[in-house]
Amino acid sequence: MYTSRCVTPLNLKSNWTKIAGLTAAATLATVFALTARAADPIVICSIDDRSGAAADTGTQGYQGVQMAIDEANAAGGIGGHKLKVIPYDGKTDPQLTATFASRCAEDDKGLVIIGGNPSAPAAAMIPIATENKIPYFMLSAGTDTLTDPPAPYHFRFGPANRQDAAAIADLLAQQGFKRPAIINNSLPFGTDGARATTAALKKKNITVVAQQTYDINATDLSPQLTNLRDAKPDVLLVFPYPADGARVLRTARQLNMTAPIVVSRSALLDTLRKLAGPASDGVLIPNTVDPSRADVQKFFTAFNARFGPHQPTLYPIIGYDAARAALQVIATPAVLKAIDAGNIEEARKAFRDGTERLTQFKGLQGELNASYHFGPQQHHGSPDANWYVFILVADNGTRLVKPDLSKFKPL
Questions:
Q1: Partners of 84 in the beta sheet?
Q2: Is residue 377 part of a domain?
Q3: What angle, rounded to 10 degrees, do the helices at 242-254 and 222-230 form?
Q4: Staple 79 to which of 7, 94, 274, 336, CB 3.0 to 4.6 Å?
């Protein structure tokens, strides 16, 4: 039997009251959700080598990132958001590093990856960044081909090996050297540095008289260095990692090699100089940080107060500069709008586009009037001009000082 139901005004009122209550509850839930989203931290992943062969580079780069992020959070964050750094130690393992990059993109919902000092693990993150469309700010990994051609989401803040090579070649030509010899380890940093420097010297009409490559784990380097000594070079150029670089310098001293020595930027690391001790004194190193700059001095005063004494080198500076650049891009309206909408994919794309508009970003690398230059087809930010100074090792490897280049001459 069919029974009709009479809907009275009271029933209507009751139904509308329920609907209004549900609507209000939904509205409040939406407001609370948006408020919670606005308060969610913006995630930045730091992925680097902090316990492997080049641990100093990754540790100091991460510490530089921490400095910049902590400064931003102390000032209230960006657009109502705090910044959160999730650190990963890639242990100089390309596969582990790539896995961490995937985790950052997929699980952590990171906005950007900052890291990449050793070249092999740094390179392993590039395809992950491309696949997941997550921006990747690479630090000091120097292999030239890492940004040539540029990958869509990958940007480099440190100098390329060709730039180190050009700075060394310019110095040798200026100082009158004619017979350089090169020794390098067998890893990409060593082989690419030797290749780039040989090419740069050729442009200056300077021919390398001898070149030797050694396995990074070799304990006896006297055969290679004896061959170089017998070639009678007027300067020795070394492209190592820290531990093997110390063995090169100690062996050269034991063999009474008297030619001046230039070591690549790896000699900026405390580990190399501590292991080499007095054998590192007098070594000249290319550096992209000018210790005479007042802002650089201010940075290292704060950095050393927090992390202990360090010499003024590029590794913490690159991390700091990359993080500050990231913060500047995050603050742009397009990135914040996507973040507030909870659209991480759109936020990453807007971040990538914003980085390509950093055509004159002023950091702490280079001379005072220098700046980073990025663009749609320019994902390597370090310029060729006004970027390098040379620095001298002194006091049993414990200090980096301004050199007297009038004394850096062929013997």
A1: 43
A2: no
A3: 50
A4: 336
- Our count of domains for the chain comes to 2
Q: Is residue 122 part of a domain?
A: yes
For residue 89, what are the β-bridge partners?
Answer: 48
Q: Give pLDDT, residue 54.
A: 79
Type of residue found at 59? T
pLDDT in tens, 61-104: 999 999 999 999 999 999 999 999 999 999 999 999 999 999 99
284-287 and 389-394: which strand pairing?
antiparallel
pTM value?
0.88
Query: Is there a single domain that holds both residue 209 and residue 338?
Result: no
Is the domain of 262 the same as that of 278?
yes
Angle between helices 9-39 and 333-340 (to 10 degrees): 130
> Does residue 271 belong to any structural domain of this protein?
yes
130 and 168 in a single domain? The answer is no
Q: Residue 42: enclosing H or E segment and its boundaries?
A: strand 42-48
Q: How far apart are the first and last CA of the chain?
A: 116
Strand stretches in 232-315, DSSP E: 235-239, 261-263, 284-287
Task: Assess whether 230 and 340 both reside in one domain.
Answer: no
Non-local CB neighbours of 80 within 8 Å, separated by 6+ positions: 38, 39
Domain range for 275 is 162-287+389-407
What's the Cα-to-Cα distance from 299 to each of 176, 390, 398, rounded to whole Å? 36, 20, 20
Q: In this predicted model, what pLDDT tens digit does every residue of 257-286 receive, in sequence order?
A: 999 999 999 999 999 999 999 999 999 999
For residue 383, tell me if it sits in a domain. Answer: no
CB 269 within 8 A of CB 244: no
**DSSP-assigned letter for residue 380:** B
**CA-based max dimension of the chain:** 116
Nearest CA-CA partner of 314 in 142, 106, 134: 142
Say which residues have a Cβ less than 8 Å from residue 374's Cβ, sequence separation at least 6: 155, 355, 356, 357, 358, 359, 361, 381
Residues 181, 257, single domain; the answer is yes
Q: What are phi and psi of 113, to 5 degrees?
A: -105, 130
